[in-house]
Amino acid sequence: MPPPKDVVKIAIQMVGAVPQLIELQQTKPLASVLKDVCDAWNLPNAERYALQYADGRQTYITESNRRDIKNGSILRLTTSPDQEAEQLYIGIQSKNVDVKTDSLKKLASLSQDVTFAQEFISRNGLKQIYSIVEEGNDTGEMLAHTLKAFTELMEHDFVSWENLSTVFIKKIVSYVNMNAVDASIQQLSLSILENMVPTSCLLFEVVKKEVTLDRLLTHLQVTNAQLQLKAMALLIALLLSATDTERRDMMEYLREKNIRQFIHKNIIHSSEPLGDEMAHYLYVLQSVSLNLCEHRMKMSMDPYSQEQRDLLQSLRQAAFESESEAAAGTFSTERRRSLCAKEFRKLGFLNNSNPAEDLRRAPPGLLALDNMVYFSRNTPNAYSRFILENSSREDKHECPFARSSIQLTLILCEILHIGEPCSETAQAFYPMFFGQDHFFQELFCICIQLVNKTWKEMRATQEDFDKVMQVVREQITRTLSLKPTSLELFKTRVNALNYSEILKLRQTERLHQEETLAVPVLELREKLKPELLELIRQQRLLHLCEGTLFRKISSRRRQDKLWYCRLSPNHKVLHYGDVEEGVQSPPIESLTEKIPVADMKMLLVGKECPHTKEKSSGKQNKDVLELAFSIVHDVEEYCLNFVAPTRYEFCLWTDGLNVLLGKEMTSERTQTDLDVLLSMELKLRLLDLENISIPDNPPPIPKPPSNLNFCYDFSHAEQ
User: Fold this and answer.
1) Which CATH architecture has domain 7-79?
2) ELMO domain: from which residue to which, for each copy (predicted)?
3) What architecture is the 84-272 domain classified under in CATH?
């Protein structure tokens, strides 16, 4: 008979004593439980003791978290958090260097626990930490432990970052700016500054002023991967906290210092694999850089702006310079205006008498004009060839340069998500972005020539404009999905994907769709579905058994802390626990926390999850909502909360957990996988029927023959 829900069987250890095996009554006050445990070992003053987990992070047991204790847990009787905090508070003030170092080392470890942190901070312990740093007498190991303890204590959000003194901040900054400092101290200092920057404008200004971009670039160029990562983290925090003008100036300075080329050569193409954290920062850097175009994208053309009109006129002059100069001296003003209108029509403006009207639509706004001017100035030969080639065609067959440029700019903005906020978890960046200055404009130059090429291949007329742009969008998205490493490679691949190739791809997809719509094929699909769904279920459970590395994400920032979760091979227990950076697949024995599958009640996703509701007061991040899920176990108050690293992982985990709960798999990935498997299975089964049309109805069964004497009657032989 299973024990009651309010009773858990646990072991309690103490150094130098025989462990106790007890049944913990969850309804019994924790103070009474401690009294009984201490009495069994004849220990006085039970209030000076506490229980904590013997393995893993060794969290203290409190009334608020005692329900997390599982059957079979191993606890340890130890000094209570208030006693420990008092001892360490005294220890870190010791004149004995060894005692002080050991106390700081222990403080750095225990500060991860929220109960201990609260006790230590309530004794004004942070003031002592400030003093150690501000006095600046301690270096090396002692200072590293001090900074680590400070970081862990601030992580609990009991104290505002704005309470830090100017002297403390400048001391942290000095460790970043000094050369002769241990790398571990610089990493911790960069991490502290990264936490500091988003909390207030004042702290942002202090850090921005004290830590120069040149210094951050120096740290980025070291071989120490962790120091490089922390420097990138601080750079990203500064960029995200800056105003639009400051961000533009910072990005311009970084461009002058060739940061893109350095990242492309030494980070993206380094011998070491790119970690998830660095991939996220590169995505953010790409997103911030591309979003600098947002201002021009949302700005309509002002027909009264002389600067904008000059840009517009420069397009006409670059294409028809010699003709305009020859005619300028001989024609009247009216004749000259008529000539300009004709030339703007050749450029492909719909409103040739007032081309500024074409650029009033925002987006793409002035960004389209900027792209056209960049194309005309940086690739004048290609620009002239485009205009003159289309000027010589029949009116209905000419590819309108201006109209195409405006629509292409809009397409590129949508594909590259310009104007959209950065995701907290995304890691998808384009390697070729970091290999090229003026990436957006250079990409436009390639794609506008692709428009002209595709227009000719389609033998399009003005009525086909939308069809051509639809094909161009498909060419660009299909090529970008291949993640080309340079713009040259992108250009090669996108030009190879010509209109006939697009037609072949579309035809293949359409034929596949038509094949699968025949009635007999649909019936066969339904018969195959159960078997293939079972295959998908097995794959999902196998993925859960392999496990996944998850990151802890708070409302304030992207966290460095990692934890791993995996299903036991017998599919009966979920094991999870904290792991260090760089650990890919920890053994199941090292994951100390457990949830029996039998105790799992339900699966929550998105807004239903408690860890997304906790953030409801702040700005909801759509990306996190799409990746969040929680397992409710035992009673509904207790959940294990996840934020999947990718949408793919989210789908596999939610499917796998639904399988464990005996429910249907509901993710979009299930349908995709099922379609792929069905398609492969159907193709194999219908291989012999290639080029044979399958009728909707089965052929009629012929009538039986009139004479059945040829059939041998076995009944006579038996008699």
Assistant:
1) Roll (3.10)
2) 307-480
3) Alpha Horseshoe (1.25)
